[in-house]
Amino acid sequence: MKVFKQCLATAAVMLASSVALAQSEATIPASMQGTYSVSFQITSDASNAANAPVADGATADLVIGPGGALCIAEYVLANPVLENDNPYEAIWSAPALNVKLALSDIQSGDFNELNVMTTSGTFLGQFSGQKSSNDTTCASLGTSPADISSIADVFKMAEQAYSQYFPADQVNNTFEVIDGYIARSYPSTGIYIGIKDGTVYVLGGEFGDTPVTVGSVANTLAQLQAEISGEPVTPVEEPTVDIPAGDYELTISGTVTAVVFGTSTTTPFSLKIDSIEAPSSSDLDALEDEVKKALADADGVDVSTFSNFTVSEVSVTDSRVFFRAEFSATTVSSGVTVNQSYNLTYEYTKK
């Protein structure tokens, strides 16, 4: 997935209707978190039953997670609200599915049911059942959806800052789980945003068929906020960390912007090295050397002209090293000077 800063234009994200219900943030009691075995009872109104999202009697595991997360089937929902000051129900809206889900009773902390309605409020049926465990792991995700509100903000701000890549005409806090990623597709552009283990990726369209790392959720939000506000990104302190020894696979992804005769062109950049040692430390100078070493044999790249390095978003675990490198380069081809700007992510995965 490519770098939001260069490759991900602004269209205000609006509510679906100018006449919105009075809403405020809903808080789900911690006692309600866990897994519920539920079944669906469809409305007795035959004219509305045809619009129900599932069949009468269908069963499912419903997971209420921390921070207002709700998992059901292959969906994760975020940011529940109270509507019209009703303190008993937390409402999740899924406009892409044309439904709203209403959980009660958040006032008492006892699970009564999850009502299913159209986005306009027509009752379609309800899920009812019993709590089976306190586990908040979403089966399709393989983990509990941590910090779901920040994850939702990534999608919302990306859609606001880069609407040409991520077009959306309304606020949408419902996400699909695809191969373990909390994800959303944008069919008109063929692009996906996916978030997994606290890291943001993009895939498809001009970003290619392999997930490209954007960065951590926190760093991506900082970058998007800077893009929207026009303020500079808050600098990331230069970290010093120990990096585990061993054999790594390195994936370099991002973009290269070339300026020739005043004309700017941005193209994808991707390179994979099957066997390489990870950096021995993450001080700034060492990472600059790693950038040059990894690109030394790449076609059309002259590492001797690299300058203006910025290294950020350094992340280290027992099996993965990640950082972003931004730098400039100048090449001369057939007497023509080409000024280039690189924005690349380096991801070392231990073999």
Explain this structure to me?
By secondary structure, the protein is mainly beta. It has two domains: 234 residues, no CATH class; 104 residues, no CATH class. It is 13% helix and 43% strand. The chain contains five helices and 20 strands. The strands form three sheets. A 13-stranded antiparallel beta sheet has the order 7-8-9-10-2-3-4-5-11-12-13-14-15. Strands 17-16-20-19-18 form a five-stranded antiparallel beta sheet, covered by helices on one side. α3 runs parallel beside α4. The two termini are 22 Å apart.
Helix content: 10-25%
Q: What would the average pLDDT be, to the nearest integer?
A: 81
Q: Strand order of the main beta sheet, please?
A: 7-8-9-10-2-3-4-5-11-12-13-14-15
Radius of gyration: 23 Å
Main structural class = mainly beta
Total domain modules: 2
Q: Assembly state here?
A: single chain
* Unreliable stretches: 1-20, 236-241
Q: Topology as H/E string?
A: HEEHEEEEEEEEHEEEEEHEEHEEE
Signal peptide: 1-22
Keywords: Signal
Question: What's this entry about, in short?
Answer:
By secondary structure, the chain is mainly beta. It has helices at 4-7, 46-49, 148-161, 217-229, 284-295, and strands at residues 23-25, 34-42, 59-64, 70-72, 75-77, 81-83, 89-94, 99-104, 113-118, 123-133, 174-178, 181-186, 191-196, 199-204, 212-216, 247-260, 263-277, 307-316, 320-333, 336-350.
Write the layout of secondary structure elements.
Layout: H1 4-7, E1 23-25, E2 34-42, H2 46-49, E3 59-64, E4 70-72, E5 75-77, E6 81-83, E7 89-94, E8 99-104, E9 113-118, E10 123-133, H3 148-161, E11 174-178, E12 181-186, E13 191-196, E14 199-204, E15 212-216, H4 217-229, E16 247-260, E17 263-277, H5 284-295, E18 307-316, E19 320-333, E20 336-350
Antiparallel strand pairs: 1-6, 2-3, 2-10, 3-4, 4-5, 5-11, 7-8, 8-9, 9-10, 11-12, 12-13, 13-14, 14-15, 16-17, 16-20, 18-19, 19-20
